[in-house]
Design a protein that fits this description.
heterodimer, A: 304 residues, mainly alpha, 3-stranded mixed sheet, 12 helices, 6% strand, globular, B: 972 residues, two-stranded antiparallel ribbon, 38 helices
Chain lengths: 304, 972
């Protein structure tokens, strides 16, 4: 017994030494020195499952959510210029993406003023700021953002936040439902919102792979966010790790998301040599969707 | 008004006269021995002149018994009633109440002193009234003369009383009062408004001198030191009213000198103390009243006068005690205080007039040497306390002299080192002289100076000046060697208890604990601070520490043992600080930090403690671990943040191997095994922490694999090795080893974490379902060690079931690949779970599940699961399957799918021979038939309807066939 054990130990030590040697040679690094966010993200999956179970037990469905979305959309119709060039452009893009949707919603995008941001609301409503259109560099990146927001809707993340409200509407106690949603969100959401963002990112990447757009666009969109942050805020403080901030932050670190999906895209291009994918820098500039007009120089055949 | 005052005074004097007359009569009566009147007060018995026992003294029962012992013996023969016996002779006087001793004492004290107190008060009142009267009625000269007459009257009274026996004290008080009033009148004649009639300052001063002279003479004449001190103090007080000039200071000095001379006559310690303190107070008052303080800054008459006065008084007062009078006297506080006060006053006096000259160094040194010489003189005279006092004063003066070396350009370090050297020299001299008290003081002083030197060194080091750094380094090194030598001497001469503060160990293994061994270690730190900026310093410091560790072993000193620990811990802190500063330069950091491994190794090798009779392993192992952690982190983190964690895990395996190889077995394992194990635990914990905080965030690939995954693939077998390899039979049962089985849980959690991270989320339920098999199998295969894993398999089954029912059914993917579809993985998971259920049933479930620790709550849960396995195992599975089917598939296919589920339950009932499940499957089947008729028939399309009907029919037929074939299985 002793001899095989010693051999196994020697093998393990050799493995460890070999791994160390590889790491010394290749010098891989991490986006931040250390962070609690991924661990919290992982732990959040349990809380998310509990929350999802709760949603399952509530007798509301996609039909209720769609009606809720229509009500929200009606409110935004009056406040945003959906008919503008930007609004029309984005709605053309979401129309192409919604072909891959599984939920019976009419996806609509509303454009509002503000710093680069986007959010999804129940029932297929997506809000995009003009700042986002300025911060993104290509149509593919806009597609990545829209796919991410669509992921939140498709994966019922938005629905989870209003389930009691929808239920209470049915029984005529709306304020009670709002209070219940608020309470649950306040207590639970920060524990798994990072997990939800991770799911939406994954959905976005998988959706982009179903389109003609380059898979690099997901990582690129995060890179554009980072560039914007560095340019406008010079915010180096956010890179510093803080256990409380890591826990309460709603999104994973953008650097991590950027690294993850850039790596995935790089891997995709290695396994899909010879394929052509579209970027759409000019399309975004001209606000012309690629479905209407494509430019030859916008095609890429490798990871960039 | 005046008449009223005179009236009052007359009454007071009359009362005083009456009282005096009565006192006189009583004294006469006492002297003649005649009895005092029956009702008169009883005079207290004087200590000096005890009163004869009065025949008329009342006799108490007790006193009679004590006085007549024969009576007691007689009473034994013929018992008599215990009554007061009759007086032996004479008439019976009236029984008088006896006063309590306390009251007698108070009464006596009052009566003995009342004359002085009341007399002085009355006299002062009288003078005051007369002064008031005179101030109102007479010219200043008249007032002066009146006061003189009053003094003359008092003196006459003094002469009269001094001849009367028993009135000496009152006479002395009257005389002192006369002297004080005379001084007051002399002072007033020259400078107090209302009394002043002399305009010339010189004449006024002469007159004042006359008053002072009279008082000093009275002081000489005074019967006790109280009177002497009184006259000296009022003389100084009168002088302080006079203008502050060198002349007045000189006069004051002469007065005090004469007062000191009084102490040569008889040992008036309190007088000397009061005089010296009074002169210091007078000097301070004089100094602050001096018209132009700026003059004192320069050399001049005032300063010279001050210095001379201080010196003369100080020397005169100092020599008081170097007389045969004090020989062989044991320690008494008054002379000691007086002597110390004199030195302090002298020091303060010199400080007032300090010139700031650098030559003062020599003066102070000379004074210090003189004090030491005096100390030896005191030793020759056998005056013990004086010897100690003067030696300490001399020591203080010498240190003060060294302290002024800054005026000669010496820096703080040189001064601190010189003071330390001086203290060391003093200690050596005292050791040679075998003077125990001074040696102890010397030891304390020496260590105090050592502490000061260390602090000064740490704050002083001028980085960038190599020459000074080198000088400091050399001096500190020499000091260190000196301290080591001293420690060796002290330890080897433990019987002398030079710096031994106790003994450590037990039984025959005790060893003296020398404090020097502990304290010398602190000298190491300034030495390290001097050189720490150089890369080679790591080697120098580690070598020095290595030698000291070796020397500790050779000497066997427990004190140095503690010191060595302090050195090693401190060096580690220094090394870490330096490594942090070098962390950007991995090569330099590696070169610098490498030699520090030698120190814990030395601690490990030379770990034997003689006084304990065994080896102390923990410092070496722990320190090595700490250095390993920091060294690897600070040298490799800059290259790649993934490296430290991997190295720690590899190192932990080595630690485990060391722990196993050094384990001796049994309860009383005194080897290093446990400490190695602690180190290994720490390294594994650090790896896991590092993995969570650093590795998890990375998504980078190396070749086809993520860096994170590579590390996980290495970590899983390493942790498995940790958990599996040590055999419990050959290992000691210490607490460290008892914790070890938890590594199985650590390993399991790490594997689950890896699966959660690396397996796509859609496939998680299948992975968890697979884990149920693996854990259950492990629990069966290694029953002794891993039976608890069967319980974990149940937990994994629950997780898989929930995931399938809730998460997989809501998971949506835009991907078209079959492998990405959540229902595929969900279905696979369900199949695995259905396969798990009979396995669980067949192999005893949670029978005989044991934990290496006492976990009662968990035990109850396990028992409960085992008792109600249908509730905890099978129903969750059936419900999860039902929900999964309901939420994942089209409504038109649901009837068919649920029938399949019912069929699966039926098969399960066959396999497990459980009628309960058969009934359940039948009930499900009935419900499905209802849905088939009421839902599918009306809402489903034709093709779907056909398929569902076909499927349901076929399954029901199969069930019927199987039931008929295996009917006997359901019979009891």
């Amino acid at each position: 017994m002793t001899k095989p054990r010693v051999v196994f130990l020697a093998l393990l030590i050799a493995l460890g030494s070999g791994l160390t040697a590889i790491l010394v040679i290749l010098k891989p690094t991490t986006p931040v020195e250390y962070t609690f966010a991924p661990a919290f993200q992982l732990l959040g999956r349990g809380a998310k499952t509990m929350d999802r179970t709760l949603t399952r037990l509530v007798p509301v469905d996609s039909g209720d959510e769609a009606a809720y979305g229509d009500a929200i959309a009606a409110r935004y119709e009056s406040e945003s210029d959906r008919e503008s060039v930007d609004g029309g452009y984005l709605n053309d893009l979401i129309a192409g993406l919604s072909r891959h949707a599984k939920k019976p919603f009419r996806y609509r995008v509303f454009v509002v003023e503000g710093e680069p941001n986007a959010c999804a609301l129940p029932g297929g409503v997506i809000i995009v700021t003009r700042g986002l259109l300025k911060a993104m560099k290509s149509e593919a990146e806009i597609i990545a953002i829209l796919s991410h927001e669509m992921g939140h809707i498709e994966l019922s993340h938005c629905f989870d936040t209003v389930r009691f409200q929808l239920l209470s509407q049915k029984i005529g106690k709306r304020s009670l439902g709002q209070l219940a949603d608020f309470s649950v969100n306040l207590m639970l959401r920060h524990s798994f919102s990072k997990s939800q963002e991770e799911e939406a990112d994954r959905y976005a990447y998988d959706l982009v792979l179903q389109t003609d757009y380059t898979p690099s666009c997901v990582g690129d969109s995060f890179q554009s966010f980072l560039s914007y942050e560095m340019k406008t805020h010079a915010d180096t403080k956010r890179r510093k790790t803080n256990i409380f901030r890591d826990y309460f932050m709603t999104h994973p670190h953008t650097v991590h998301r950027q690294e993850k999906y850039s790596e995935e895209a790089r891997r995709w291009w290695i396994t899909h040599k010879g394929e052509k994918k579209y970027r759409g820098l000019k399309n975004l500039r001209l606000r012309v969707p690629a479905s209407d007009r494509r430019f030859d120089e916008e095609y890429v055949m490798s990871y960039h | 008004m005046e008449l009223f005052l005179i009236f009052i005074l007359t009454i007071c004097l009359f009362i005083l006269w009456r009282y005096t007359v009565r006192l006189k009569k009583r004294l006469d009566a006492l002297e003649s021995g005649s009895p005092v009147g029956k009702t008169g007060p009883v005079m207290p018995v004087s200590r000096e002149k005890p009163l004869p026992v009065s025949k008329t003294r009342p006799v108490s029962t007790r006193s009679v018994q004590e006085a007549t012992p024969s009576l007691s013996s007689a009473s034994k023969a013929a018992p008599a009633p215990p009554q007061v016996s009759a007086p032996q002779q004479g008439p019976v006087p009236p029984v008088k109440k006896v006063k309590s001793p306390l009251w007698e004492k108070i009464e006596k004290g009052f009566i003995e002193n009342w004359t002085g107190i009341v007399g002085a008060i009355v006299m002062v009142l009288g003078v005051a009234f007369l002064a008031v009267y005179a101030a109102l009625k007479l010219v200043p000269v008249g007032r002066f003369i009146m006061l003189l007459l009053f003094c003359a009257g008092l003196m006459a009274l003094h002469l009269f009383l001094s001849k009367k026996e028993g009135w000496e004290r009152v006479a002395a008080l009257v005389r002192s009062s006369a002297g004080a009033i005379f001084l007051f009148s002399c002072l007033g004649a020259g400078g107090i408004a209302g009394l002043q009639f002399i305009e010339s300052t010189s004449i006024a001063l002469v007159l004042l001198l006359g008053g002072i002279l009279v008082n000093v003479l009275l002081g000489f004449r005074g019967p006790t030191q109280v009177f002497a001190s009184f006259h000296v103090l009022i003389s100084l007080a009168a002088l302080s009213v006079a203008p502050a000039t060198p002349v007045t200071l000189a006069i004051g000095a002469v007065v005090v000198l004469l007062a000191v001379v009084m102490s040569y006559r008889s040992p008036w310690e309190y007088h000397l103390l009061v005089t010296v303190a009074g002169f210091l107070a007078y000097q301070l008052f004089w100094y602050h009243r001096y018209p132009d303080g700026a003059l004192l800054v320069e050399w001049g008459l005032p300063r010279l006068t001050g210095i001379a006065a201080t010196a003369v008084i100080g020397v005169a007062a100092c020599f008081v005690h170097y007389r045969k009078l004090y020989r062989d006297r044991t320690f008494h506080l008054p002379p000691f205080l007086a002597h110390l006060a004199n030195w302090s006053a002298m020091g303060a006096g010199f400080l007032i007039y300090a010139t700031g000259s650098k030559w003062n160094t020599f003066l102070l040194a000379a004074a210090g040497i003189a004090a030491c010489a005096l100390s030896w003189r005191a030793k020759a005279l056998s005056i013990r306390w004086l010897r100690v006092t003067d030696m300490l004063v001399g020591q203080a003066l010498l240190m003060a002299a060294i302290g002024t070396l800054g005026r000669w350009g010496a820096d703080d370090f040189v001064i601190a080192a010189a003071i330390h050297a001086e203290a060391f020299l003093f200690l050596l001299v005292m050791i040679i002289e075998k003077d125990v008290i001074l040696r102890r003081i010397g030891v304390f002083l020496h260590y105090l100076c050592l502490g000061a030197l260390i602090l000064v060194s740490l704050g002083f080091i001028p980085y960038g000046s190599t020459a000074i750094q080198a000088r400091i380094g050399v001096v500190l090194f020499l000091m260190l060697i000196l301290e080591v030598i001293f420690h060796r001497y002290s330890f080897r001469h433990a019987a002398d208890r030079i710096d031994i503060i106790g003994s450590v160990g037990s039984g025959d293994m005790t060893s003296p604990l020398s404090i020097g061994g502990i304290l010398l270690s602190f000298l190491f730190f300034p030495l390290a601070a001097v050189v720490h900026e150089f890369i080679w310093s790591g080697y120098a410091l580690a070598t020095a520490a290595f030698i000291i560790v070796w020397y500790r072993r050779r000497l066997g000193s427990p004190g140095l043992g503690i010191g060595v620990l302090i050195i090693a811990a401190g060096l580690e802190c220094i090394a870490i600080a330096k490594l942090i500063s070098l962390s950007d330069d991995a090569a330099s950091a590696a070169i610098y930090g490498a030699p520090f491994f030698a120190v814990p190794l030395a601690l490990f090798i030379w770990s034997h403690a003689d006084h304990l009779g065994r080896r102390i392993f923990w410092p070496g192992v722990y320190l090595f671990t700490v250095h390993l952690v920091f060294y690897t982190y600070l040298t490799t983190n800059g290259l790649s943040p993934f490296i430290p964690g991997v190295i720690w895990l590899v190192a932990s395996l080595v630690y485990l191997e060391c722990a196993m190889r050094t384990a001796s077995g049994g309860e009383n394992d005194t080897g290093p095994s446990s400490f190695f194990l602690h180190g290994g635990y720490a390294l594994v914990a650090l790896f896991i922490l590092r993995h969570l905080l650093v590795h998890l965030q990375s998504e980078l690939f190396i070749g086809p694999m993520k860096v994170r995954l590579l590390i996980e693939l290495f970590a899983v077998p390493a942790l498995l090795y940790w958990a599996a390899v040590p055999s419990s039979r050959s290992l000691p049962s210490s607490r460290a080893w008892r914790v070890h089985p938890v590594f199985w849980e650590i390993c399991m959690l790490f594997i689950l974490l890896t699966v959660a991270l690396e397996v796509p989320s859609a496939w998680h339920p299948a992975a968890w379902a697979l884990m149920t098999f693996i854990f259950f199998g492990a629990g069966l295969r290694w029953k002794e060690r891993l039976s608890r894993f069967r319980f974990y398999s149940v937990v994994m089954m629950w997780i898989a079931a929930i995931h399938v029912a809730v998460v997989s059914t809501t998971a949506v993917t835009p991907s078209l690949k079959l492998g990405d579809q959540p229902w595929i993985a969900g279905t696979l998971a369900l199949l695995l779970l259905f396969a798990y259920a009979p396995v669980y049933y067949r192999f005893g479930g949670l029978d005989n599940v044991a934990y290496p620790w006492d976990l009662k709550g968990l035990r109850r849960l396990i028992d409960s699961i085992q008792r109600r396995r249908n509730l905890f195992i099978f129903y969750p599975l059936f419900v999860a399957t039902f929900l999964f089917l309901y939420w994942s598939f089209d409504k038109s296919l649901l009837t068919l799918l649920w029938v399949v589920e019912a069929f699966a339950v039926f098969i399960l009932s066959l396999v497990l021979r459980e009628n309960h499940f058969r009934y359940l499957s039948m009930a499900g089947l009935v419900l499905c038939l209802g849905r088939l008729l009421f839902f599918d028939l009306s809402r489903a399309g034709t093709l779907a309807r056909a398929l569902v009907f076909l499927g349901v029919g076929a399954i029901m037929l199969a069930m019927n066939m199987l039931y008929n074939k295996y009917r006997d299985r359901f019979n009891p």
